[in-house]
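Dear H.,

Thanks for agreeing to be a second pair of eyes. The structure we're designing against is below in token form, covering all 233 positions.
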């Protein structure tokens, strides 16, 4: 019989687990940022003077933040599935390799694709959070209020429109970068494992009592022939 061929198992277990953990954390931070942003918008609108209309435009960071959140979630799902497959190492009846090894090219491809996608999204989001702010405008009837009045109200409410000064937005950027780091490492390890599995030769398990060792069988046969010759002499 064949022994299970699971290349770089320990390295894959460690990197996939960390990718899963920080993928979940990045996803959770994205959801948290969305909820907190909506809460702060509602607070500003509720505290606005009677008859005033407040418009808060955060579409730039909102759209790219949704992408980052979704990719972090997808990265967590793929790494979790890959982790689960590593615990099923028994070869199937049709192949000498376990499912975790046969699907390594697919796992590596998905991890690499999601990691690159996350990187591109994080670059944009990091730039937005570092250099931009929400576009806030307020009208009292048909008269637009001055920006200084809006800043005064923001200060009284303890909120800000500058992205980099908002704590939950900073966390929504920093933690997904860690998920990207471990996603990249997992991709490299999975690619290396796929290449090793492709060039690996089948390994026989000679410890089983049901398997005959060819070298041992030949040695026994030669010894038997020698005994026969001695008897004939």
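And this is the sequence the design step returned. I haven't edited it by hand at all.
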């Amino acid at each position: 019989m064949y022994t299970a061929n699971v290349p770089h198992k320990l390295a894959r277990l460690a990197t996939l687990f960390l990718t899963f953990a920080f993928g979940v954390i990045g996803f959770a931070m994205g959801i948290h940022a969305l909820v907190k942003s909506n809460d702060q918008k509602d607070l500003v609108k509720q505290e606005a003077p009677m008859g005033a209309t407040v418009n808060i435009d955060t579409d730039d960071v909102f759209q790219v933040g949704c992408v980052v959140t979704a990719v972090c979630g997808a990265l967590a799902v793929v790494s979790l599935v890959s982790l689960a497959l590593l615990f099923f190492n028994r070869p199937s009846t049709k192949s000498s390799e376990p499912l975790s090894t046969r699907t390594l090219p697919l796992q590596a491809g998905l991890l690499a694709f999601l990691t690159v996608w996350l990187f591109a999204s994080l670059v944009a989001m990091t730039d937005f959070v570092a250099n931009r702010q929400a576009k806030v405008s307020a009208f009292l009837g048909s008269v637009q209020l001055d920006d200084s009045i809006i800043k005064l109200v923001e200060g009284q409410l303890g909120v800000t429109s500058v992205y980099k000064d908002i704590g939950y937005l900073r966390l929504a950027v920093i933690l997904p970068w860690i998920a990207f780091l471990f996603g990249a490492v997992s991709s490299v390890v999975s690619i290396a494992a796929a290449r090793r599995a492709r060039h690996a030769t089948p390994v026989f398990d000679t410890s089983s009592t049901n398997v005959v060792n060819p070298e041992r069988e030949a040695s026994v046969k030669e010894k038997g022939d020698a005994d026969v010759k001695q008897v004939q002499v």
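Two observations from my side: The chain has a mean pLDDT of 82. The two ends are 41 Å apart (CA to CA).

Warmly,
E.
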